[in-house]
Amino acid sequence: MLLRITHSTEYRYDAPLTYSLQRLRLVPRSSALQTVIDWNISIDGARVEVTYDDSFGNTTWLLSVDGEPHSIAIHASGTVETIDNHGMLGNHRGLAPLWLFRQPTDLSRPGPATEAVVGLVSAGNDLQRLHELMRLVRERVAYTIGATDAVTTAEEALAKGQGVCQDHSHVFIAAARLMGFPARYVSGYLNLDAIDAQTATHAWAEAHVEGLGWIGFDCSNGISPDERYVRIACGRDYRDAMPVMGIRLGEAEEHLAVRLTVEQ
């Protein structure tokens, strides 16, 4: 499938910024699941300090702002050709060792609620158990916008019984690690049926299965990623893979606007 993506993020401020630092992970990379045909990022109101590949293999840009600008506009766009490989990305690559993805983080730390979900996973081979886990997570955390936020943990999402793709991914990751699998968070784009314009990027999880490599699991939709998905970044949890994050100094009030289209 050939997908055309446009993703704009604009920050507006009611006063000049003392200082702001933004980190972008907005560049998809070619892999066994996708080929990047073309990709471009344009920045208005900030300067690019450095670009580099982080330890997880994500192309990363650092931007800074100080003084006069009252807005920062980030526009990413391009074309990516994807295939349906049942979510199978393949062998582990990158500087981060595989054992790192077995370690808990603040957002994906397992507790009693996670242990209870793992206890319900039926016997079977690795793939069967992971697909069963995906089904259980989807059953226990209803997709509800606004019920959680960026700092909600896996245990908190399970206690609420509500969340979004970020929460589904953290719960799956926490449980998969408890089951002995390396697991990680993936941010990306999803071509929704009959909906081109969206308000946010998507997220799912990947687990590493011996002999098969990394395999994706999207608990929000109950499937392994297919040709409608485009990977941007990955990491131990949301904080490692979030497309845009930053810090700012000063008293200026911030207003954020996001425009995203993913279309064939």
From TrEMBL:
Residues 157-221 form the Transglutaminase-like domain. Pfam families: Bact_transglu_N (PF08379), Transglut_core (PF01841). InterPro entries: Bac_transglu_N, Papain-like_cys_pep_sf, Transglutaminase-like. It comes from the Bacteria. SMART domains: TGc. SUPFAM superfamilies: Cysteine proteinases. This is Transglutaminase-like domain-containing protein.
